[in-house]
């Protein structure tokens, strides 16, 4: 099994994978007008143009091409795996390679998500940040989310924590941070700081430094729901998860109250500040997970 770059000689192979997947899978999720829109969008000219100017990959399994995917600048598109071979990990292999290509030159990856692929992208660390829709020629409506994922890029071999959101996944009983607590990190050179709130935390701040291995050493303070001011210190060790997100393994101690110690884990979160209204009709909510180019 290998991934190879497509050229114009592979046009018919790429076209067959795209058309077969659309005609077989999409009618289960989309109205006829939307299926026809996808087939028109992935027309011969667009496929040829993609092969010429994009990084179009093919996955070869024992001499048989079973899937394709494309990257252009920081965008992933046209990821398709033959219907009878879906669920075997081929799409994951394509995504892994496309993401690694984009990560060499960009700080985030964007894509348009379909309904069937939405959970796959969520599990890979993507978050919806823009809602869009297209009205097809027969008035069927294609609704979809544009999604993005931050690339864990290193500066001088170090993780850059700037503008990353984290949420708690575990904590010892004497801690006050919970899964409802969201941290927004910032970084300038070796200085790192964050705001956090949610759950038992009304408002909190932390400030510290990042060392040569991207470990964080900081102090924190917050006001809890009881109106108490709590202070502490923490050492955080980073770990890169399989989906590319950052996990921080934390050893902390209160510096007021009982001065007890604790352990916690926070992970880079899929939660983002939405750029479109949160209140929508049921139809709009159902539409939010559609796509125009991928899967």
How much of the residues is beta strand, in percent?
35-45%
What name is given to the CATH topology of the largest domain? Answer: Aminopeptidase
CATH level 1 class label of the largest domain? Alpha Beta
State the secondary-structure class. alpha+beta
User: N- to C-terminal separation?
Assistant: 21 Å
Sheet with most strands: strand arrangement = 10-11-12-13-14-15-16-17
**How many extended strands?**
17
In N-to-C order, the SSE pattern is EHHHEEEHEHEEEEEEEEEEEEH
State the domain count.
2
Total DSSP helices: 6
Low-confidence segments? 271-295
Radius of gyration: 22 Å
| Average pLDDT metric | 88
**CATH-assigned homologous superfamily of the largest domain:** Gcn5-related N-acetyltransferase (GNAT)
* Largest sheet composition: 8 strands, antiparallel, barrel
Overall body shape: elongated
């Amino acid at each position: 099994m290998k991934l190879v770059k497509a050229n114009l000689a592979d046009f018919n192979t790429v076209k067959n994978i795209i058309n077969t997947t659309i005609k077989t899978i999409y009618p289960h999720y989309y109205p006829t007008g939307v299926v026809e829109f996808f087939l028109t969008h992935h027309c011969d000219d667009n496929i040829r143009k993609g092969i010429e100017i994009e990084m179009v990959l093919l996955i070869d399994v024992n001499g048989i091409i079973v899937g394709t995917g494309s990257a252009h600048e920081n965008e992933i598109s046209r990821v398709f795996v033959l219907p009878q071979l879906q669920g075997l990990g081929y799409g994951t292999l394509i995504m892994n390679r496309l993401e690694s290509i984009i990560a060499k030159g960009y700080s985030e990856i964007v894509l348009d998500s379909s309904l069937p692929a939405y959970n796959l992208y969520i599990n890979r660390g993507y978050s919806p940040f823009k809602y869009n829709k297209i009205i097809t020629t027969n008035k069927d409506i294609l609704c979809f989310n544009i999604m993005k994922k931050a690339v864990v890029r290193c500066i001088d071999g170090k993780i850059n924590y700037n503008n990353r959101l984290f949420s708690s996944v575990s904590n010892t009983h004497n801690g006050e941070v919970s899964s409802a607590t969201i941290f927004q990190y910032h970084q300038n050179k070796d200085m790192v700081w964050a705001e956090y709130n949610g759950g038992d935390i009304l408002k909190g701040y932390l400030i510290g430094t990042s060392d040569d291995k991207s470990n964080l050493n900081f102090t924190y303070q917050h006001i809890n729901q009881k109106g108490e001011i709590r202070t502490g210190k923490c050492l955080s060790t980073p770990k890169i998860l399989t989906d590319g997100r950052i996990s921080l393994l934390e050893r902390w101690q209160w510096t007021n109250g009982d001065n007890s110690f604790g352990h916690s884990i926070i992970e880079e979160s899929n939660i983002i500040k939405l750029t479109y209204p949160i209140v929508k009709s049921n139809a709009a909510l159902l539409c939010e997970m559609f796509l125009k180019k991928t899967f």
